[in-house]
Amino acid sequence: MLSDSSKKLPKILTTQVVAKSRLFEIQSVDLEFSNGELRTYERFKPGNQQAVMMVPIDGDDLLLIREYSVGTERYELGFPKGGVDKDEEPKDAANRELKEELGLGANKIDFLRTVITNPSYMRSIMHIFVAKDFYPCQLEGDEPEPLEIVRFPLSKIDELLADSSFNEARNLTALYSLKDYLSRK
């Protein structure tokens, strides 16, 4: 395992808001590095919000969802995911999101790994889980339209990795982590 660097962290001189919407706040951060170099960075305001992604396995199939993504302006194929509510454990959030997005709860949820998306600009923590052994349970979610559930053979993971509608980085990380998880079983 690689150890943390012993380098001295840069000193934050000033932080100011440069843009704000109902979802995001962008900050300008003036830094002084240990060698005296001064730089200004921009970032999304750090928060404590975490998210979860589930890799549901039902028998010999993965359960995926097809959902509209405004960033790409098309429907994308991926795993169920969502935010962790205040005072909620990530594993509990994973099961709640499964119920909202798939209409299924899971009796077995195993932690795969935690990833951070784009740490240069934001603190975006996502916990990835494998979910199995389902039971019917539908909770109302926040999606604007019903999600399409797509069954995909677990034996064809490499085809899914090559699918052009399955290209979001966190989904790919989850699938590669799943391959590693399955090789240990």
From TrEMBL:
InterPro entries xref list: NUDIX_hydrolase-like_dom_sf, NUDIX_hydrolase_CS, NUDIX_hydrolase_dom
Superkingdom of this protein's organism: Bacteria
CDD domains noted in UniProt: NUDIX_ADPRase_NudE (cd24156)
UniProt keyword annotations, A-Z: Hydrolase
Gene3D superfamilies named in the record: Nucleoside Triphosphate Pyrophosphohydrolase
Record GO terms (molecular function): ADP-sugar diphosphatase activity
Domain Nudix hydrolase: 47-174
Entries under PANTHER family matching the protein: ADP COMPOUNDS HYDROLASE NUDE, UDP/ADP-SUGAR PYROPHOSPHATASE
Designated name of the protein: ADP compounds hydrolase NudE
Organism: Haemophilus haemolyticus
